Amino acid sequence: MALPKVILQLYPMFPAEGEDGRKALRPLGNDVDMYHKIVHEWTDIVKEADEMGVWGISTIEHHFHSEGYEVGPNPGILNSYWASQVKNARVGALGYVAATQDPIRIAEETAILDHLTQGKYWVGFARGYQSRWTNTIGQFSDSVATVSDGSENDKRNREIFEERVEMILKCWTEESVRLDGKHYQAPYPLETGVEDYPAWKIASEAGVQGEIDEKGAVQRISVVPKPYTKPHPPVMVAASKSPDSIKFCAKHGFIPTYFMTTQGMSELVDLYVEEATKYGRHYIRGQNQNIVRWPHITKTSDDYDRKLREYDLDIYKNFYGPFFPQFPQGSDDELVQSMKDSGIFIGGTLDESIEAWKETYAEVPAEYITLIYHWAQQPKEDMMEELSLFMEKILPELEIPDFAMAAE
């Protein structure tokens, strides 16, 4: 038997005294002194989490949060710096919003990160759901934010996302590429190639064969460097409820990362195993899969309610709720109860937390656990005390099959 691999996922929530306090401090996300303090405290957290034995440390790609909820516009820069600060932990992000990005640039950046970390790096991809920034940054692709609702916007978002992730795989693994997609082409323009390239002669004689045609036009692209990890770093993909996302992960051996209830995850865990066999990948239940939870470990049951109210209610009510119609509406008391009932938030006293985690893992075992805290709304010392308790007291209760042995 083995223990799940724990990932600490953080994106700063600038602290305020609830919703009214956030309004009074507008625009909190522009507070330079606050960000400066937070980004350096983040380094301390990374080092402490590494010492505690977490498997990985992660962040996100989110932009334009002037209200100060999730300030995390560039995961690559943070991952690069963190790699120089840790001894054992992997670094990564959950993750790059592929539909808003140039796939070649992602392939290049992540390959460099894989080298800098000497292979202790993973790549995360997400489809994007926040129109304020996805539509702005992704305008070259006519990308739109979406939830998995089967709408035309949803279908187009998925089409762009999957096309670009497939292109990143090609850039990582093939000597040279021609990317001929519905939403992206390279070299550009694809019909003629890049004509009149001045240094065509040396490129045709010393570069990848076939990059340059007999007229001196660039017809293929060689994306360098290639990743340190062969064939490429592990890939995690955020999933909120869509079976199509799970099928896409199974096709490529990606790690589905479940931002969903235990009940919602239960069927998809089995779907992943079933779909993977179609591509010659034979997993057992929970293998190569990642469960996401917002935890709190408290001294009393009442203190769990307090932490939810002080650290999580504001963002749950005013940010998550408007994006996801399935989230309950109601008074603050009703919303706190809905967080407790969701299964996505998990906690209580140490004994209550252990029982809740054991019940979850009895239904949906997973090789990876991603823990998200609303730091810095939750003070660092409080959060790290909870993380320490999780690593020392709860994690040992969650034994899972040794997946490496099972694969053999």
Concise summary:
With 408 residues, this protein is α/β, with parallel strands linked by helices. The protein has 14 helices and twelve strands.
Describe this structure in words.
This protein has 408 residues and is an alpha/beta fold. It has 2 domains: 308 residues, Luciferase-like domain (TIM Barrel, Alpha-Beta Barrel); 46 residues, no CATH class. The protein contains 14 helices and 12 strands. The strands form 2 sheets. Strands 1, 2, 3, 4, 5, 8, 9, 10, 11 and 12 form a 10-stranded parallel sheet that branches. Helix 2 runs parallel beside helix 13. It is globular, with a radius of gyration of 22 Å. The model has no long low-confidence stretch (mean pLDDT 93).
Relevant terms:
408 residues, alpha/beta, TIM Barrel, 2 domains, two-stranded antiparallel ribbon, 12 strands, 44% helix
